[in-house]
Amino acid sequence: MTSFLRSLRVAAVLVSGAASAASADPLGAVGDESIMSTIHGLSSIREGTGGPQIWILFAATCEKSAAMRKAVEASPTRLRVSWVPAPVDGGRRDPATARLVGADIEGMTSAFAGDLSRLPPGGEAAERQALAIESGLSRPMFRATGRPLATPTIVYRDADGLVRVVRGAVGADLFARIALDAR
Asked: Does residue 107 contact residue 119 with C-beta atoms inside 8 Å?
């Protein structure tokens, strides 16, 4: 029994150490390739035509996602940003964000302003998106960050080719550093 408790304590230390290490790097935790392959298959709202590519998982009703949108809009960096509607909220479906699966940039802007009137109700595509996020992103992102998936979350490939995961809204300075690090 004592060795079992010792093993359990070692596992707890390793998990908390991984979470600390993941949050220690401001340019994001290193994730595995499955994150990138899953995110490429998700519906997204694209903006920008030049520069590095980043993906931002967001929710229409999330204040931090709205703040992230403002940081991206104010940024002087040239990026290709794919906004990925994440219609999941702690295992429940988010109907407002579900309406953004398949939408355009104007629909996303309206949703952040609280106006969903021009968007169709979420349908089968939104359900597929939610399932893909839950089955393909939740676990690898938890392994990378030590915390559950949350919005907003930035995903990008860095200059060394590593998949980076940055959980939560970031300010202008950190966003500029991410833009420089992205390829």
From this structure: yes
Q: What is the DSSP letter of 119?
A: S
Q: The whole model's pTM is what?
A: 0.85
Size (the chain), residues = 183
Q: What is the pLDDT of residues 90-143, one digit of tens each?
A: 667 889 999 999 999 999 999 999 999 989 989 999 999 999 999 999 999 999
Q: Say whether the peptide bond before residue 87 is cis (omega within 30 degrees of 0).
A: no
Give the residue from 169, 151, 181, 179 showing the smallest Cα distance to 81: 179
Residue closest to 169 by CA, chosen among 122, 114, 112, 92: 112
Q: Up-side HSE of residue 30: CA atoms within 13 Å toward CB?
A: 7
Whether 119 contacts 95, CB under 8 Å: no
Identify any residues that bridge with 32 across adjacent strands, giving them in sequence order.
none
